[in-house]
Amino acid sequence: MLAVDGITVRFGGITALDGVSFTVGPGTAVGLIGPNGAGKTTLFNCLTRRCTPDGGDVRFEGEDLLALPPHAVAGRGIARTFQNLGLFPRLTVRENVMVGAHSRGRTGHLAAALRLPRVRREERELGDLADDLLRRLGLADVAGHPAAGLPFGTLKRVELARALAARPRLLLLDEPVNGLSHGEVGQFADLVRSVCQDFDLTLLVVEHHMGFVMGLCDKVVCLDFGRKIAEAPPEEIQRDPAVVEAYLGVAA
Amino acid sequence: MSTIAVTLGTDRARRLRAALTVLLAAAVAVGAPFYFAPFQVFQLTMVLLYAVALAGLNLLVGFGGQISLGHGAFFAAGAYTSAVMLDRYDTGHLATLPVAAAGCFLLGLALGVPALRLRGLYLALVTLSLAVFLPPLLKRLEPVTGGSMGLIVDKPQPPAWSGLAEDQWTYFVVLAVTAVALLLARNLLRSRVGRALRAVRDDESAAEVMGVRLSLHKTLAFAWSAMFAGVAGCLYTWVIGFVSPDSFSFVLSVTLLAGLVVGGLASLYGPLLGAAFVTYVPSVSQDLSEAAPGVVFGLLIIAVMFVAPTGLAGLPGRVPVAVARRLSDVAARRPSGVSAVLHRTPPAASAPGPESPSRPGTRASEPLTPADPETVGAPPRTEKE
């Protein structure tokens, strides 16, 4: 479904990603791990076209992703969440989710100003879609609240709802349980698992919480200093000497 | 299931209340010119036309998060388009409106493209230069614009069947255009497009990941905004019947921005309040002394920003919160005060009736209530870096 091939990114003299290749099969969940600064978020940014790699190739269902303008990626069925939350603080939770469905709407400026009948219909559809998702994720009570000022765990779920509103086929989660309490991590994992099943999603997740990654993913890719050092199912990756070395160092 | 029923109920109630408000406002607006003296009707007309310009500026600054210190230039462009058409080609008044609107839309589009690469102070400076540069240009183009002397044009005349005086007729014409303009702005904002604009204001890169085309929405916001200013300028020519370069100095641009901030950024009815502020404050303070308007205007802006940082439109939402907080402060202080010492024996009965239940109530609602006015009048931050 997603094929990353030899992707290289340099920032000045630093090579953030160095020839990383892996594939994500349809319907699978792939975890992306690695120590801080390994290049995980940079890789995510390449997939959503926020950053253009210096070399390599990214294909999504056979289409060259790097040839698309950044705003077109969502329309192809790729949605993401952000490491430090990228919500719109002054919009309500419901509006945030409706912006998530932006790529599914068609209304242009002129039609919107005249409020043509099809604009009304579309507004109603997007509103219903948002309400369904908010109910599904237990956010109906805060729907009218501005995104700023809600608890962190709630905001994480709002961001997930916003990403799901695009009806993506590939969902990218950037440290989804970072900053959540122990109990919340478990709940969030269950939530992600169930929405992946319900919406038939393929998942690529960056996370430091090993319990979360190992419990959720079918395959784990480990990066270190911009290079892929391992790619294996979770139970094997935990025994991989290169991974252990990257995380714990090696005895002198 | 019950939550759905509740939201439906409040939804219907809100719709009913909105419809009643609109009806009431319409009745007042239609009745006003028959009640007030001609000069007061003229002032109301000016409020309406400034409201159009401010609604346009609000699209750009309040909802789009960009800034413009050059909207006086679009206002002037609209005014001169109308004046020149009336003066040279003797077209009817109504014919000048679409031309002024379309011309300013295109001007705004042209300026919106460089604005894509600028933000904050830099954008303010570039737009300001436009406002500074236009009046001298108008003076130079004497054959068309009449130079420093300006142009005197006819005001729209009331048709015989209406039986209205000139000022009343003008008022109704301006009222009609204003109503349509405000409706267009409201429609735009309550749609996918309006949400996209506000999303871009709050977080550009996140909005782009959601599929929002930044360049398209930002340039079109500029174009719409310029169009509204141009329409207001066109109305200005109709109302005053005279244009000159000195009417459109950069002070006009600054006044418009100040009016918007005072009225309430990112609020749907903030532009109306701002327009009233811009119209009435100078004319009322004129009675005090010749030099008073500038001083009073400035002091009032400072005062409003202290009392209502979200603008006048945010005030109704802020007052109950402030009152509740004050009450809870008083209630919190009371027990340690004299009354508590006097009636020490039954503590439950000693506290005065209304305060003791209100204390926990207001406390609990505090984290929630301040957020409510923010949706109406956003914080007065116009730019994020």
β-strand number of chain B: 2
* Mean residue pLDDT of chain A: 90
Q: Which class do the helix and strand fractions of chain B yield?
A: mainly alpha
Number of domains of chain A: 1
- The CATH homologous superfamily of chain A is called P-loop containing nucleotide triphosphate hydrolases
Largest sheet of chain A: 6 strands, mixed
GO molecular function, one term (chain A): ATP binding
InterPro entries (chain A): AAA+_ATPase, ABC_AA/LPS_Transport, ABC_transporter-like_ATP-bd, BCA_ABC_TP_C, P-loop_NTPase
Keywords (chain A): ATP-binding, Nucleotide-binding, Transport
Protein name (chain A): ABC transporter ATP-binding protein
Main attributes of the structure:
heterodimer, A: 252 residues, alpha/beta, six-stranded mixed beta sheet, four-stranded antiparallel beta sheet, 10 strands, 37% helix, 23% strand, globular, B: 385 residues, mainly alpha, 3 domains, 2 strands, 74% helix, ABC_transporter-like_ATP-bd (chain A), transport (chain A), P-loop_NTPase (chain A), ATP binding (chain A), ABC transporter ATP-binding protein (chain A)
